[in-house]
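User: Teach me something about this protein's shape.
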Amino acid sequence: MITCRTFGPVEVRVDHEPAPAELLWRKNLALLIYLARSPHRRRSRQHLIGLLWADKDEKAARHSWTEALRVLRQIVCEDKLTAEGDTIELADDAIELDVDRFERAVASGEAARASDLITGDFLEGFAIGDASEFEDWLTAERSTLRRQGVEVLAKDADGLLAGGRVSDAAQRAERAAA
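Assistant: First, the predicted structure itself:
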């Protein structure tokens, strides 16, 4: 299984080991994370090509897409990354993202657990200059997650303060204000 820390600088592990260098190439990693964050972990091939390779002519874009898909299939396993028609789908158990754990903790009202997962901005320092659609998505994700993070940290600080843990509450409040 692939585990990915997306809060703060991205860190990827495959079966508890550092990820292979090929997976860490920016567009390969962007493809993996974007697909994992997509509704039902599914997108059309055309959408993904347009997202990451819009700057290339069609032949070069398709070649880059094929290579990225080959890398992901080698690492994820073919049965966890499937193509049916024009649709590419990533199995739920193929990858675990800290941002997904964060959202589950927020949804279940576990502010302390959610707060512990916030170690920085979503994909901090990560950018793909020649993929403006991906950059637009990344900016929107960062903004949404930053807002949720501030709300969670403030809620956690309130709970800590109510429990008499003033120092811990102040620490959470400082993180929320940063």
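Now, about its shape. The mean pLDDT is 95. The longest helix spans residues 132-162. If you'd like, I can walk through any region in more detail.
User: That's plenty for now, thanks!
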